[in-house]
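User: Some background: our group keeps a shared notebook of sequences we're curious about, and every so often someone picks one and asks for a predicted structure to add to the entry. Today it's my turn. The entry only has the sequence so far, pasted here. Could you supply the structure so I can complete it?
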Amino acid sequence: MALPAIRRHGFDPVYDRMDRATLIALCHDRAMPGLGSRPENMTRRELIDAILDSESSPAPGPTDDYPLRRPHQWVPTARLSELTGQRVLWRFAQATLGTLRALERADTTALPDDRFPLRAGDLVLTAVNTSPALLLGIDQVVQDEAETTALEHLATFSNPLSLTQLEARTGNRLPRATQLLAMPDSNRLLAAVTDALATPAPIFLTAGDCAAGASKGSYRTLLTLALLQSGTQEEPMCQVCERYNPSRLEAHLDRPGTEDLHLEIQDHIDDTVVLCSDCHAMAHNPTVQQLGGFTRPACPDCGAPNPMQIIWGEPAIAFDEDVVLAGCVMSSGPTPRWQCRECEARYWVESARHAPEQMF
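Assistant: Of course. Here's the predicted structure to add to the notebook entry:
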């Protein structure tokens, strides 16, 4: 098992410690031929590859504005500007996968909070408690002919909108709890959101050390945005083993040795790999037991790797958690040897001398 390829030249002790602005300045100063796109549209790892391809010494130059790279997203800014005067429910939620899935799928049939009665035309802005805190989506309350109230999803902000930057644009501190906003504050907030979408500003972040099981706010932020920017309507899964287990997904920074870099947030997201907790542990400190587990036959029902071994009988010795004690009563037919950790299916593998292994 291997993580996705990182870059052609591996890690460079000089260029991997430069920020995006410096790398783009190097590309412009050298007028490097053969670039497939403008440097401003390239990811940080693509910039480093291009510079190493040029085989020239560093000669960074200044840039007037920080060269942001933001993935394309369609947001109806014209419509947002027309919503001035509507009541706004400010929803401040935890950065859970449920919140992300509701935004990604526009799953808004239920109103978000019974404590705040809403009427047709009201807006719901959803922010999450990451580090930094982010605004992720906007919905509007609608009512059908049967007077059934629901939400219409207007936009998901997969490109980061920092609450700190919105506060700087409005001159007001945004609440860190769910509440209805007063009319002048809500109008200023909508204007600030529209302005931030038109003229985004860089958000700098020091992610810190990447480790299996990391629950720091910065890593929840990267996981949140990496999932939103994936653009998939399917269930999110580990990018290595492709297992779906929402409670065990973690952000892995695929950039060893440079964890203390203070980079623009999109550069961190570009280097983020979404892994389950098992694959994340394997990426950092794989044990012989873990490596052996991933060589076992995958589950024929759900495809999950690393099954547990089934031991029949009542052995006197103690076993670790990688073993399932199945007892003494065995069913007729082939004896299962493996049990899936995800769906708990039991299976065995039949090997033919001149044929590949088959699962039953």
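Suggested note for the entry: The longest strand covers residues 149-162. The radius of gyration is 25 Å.
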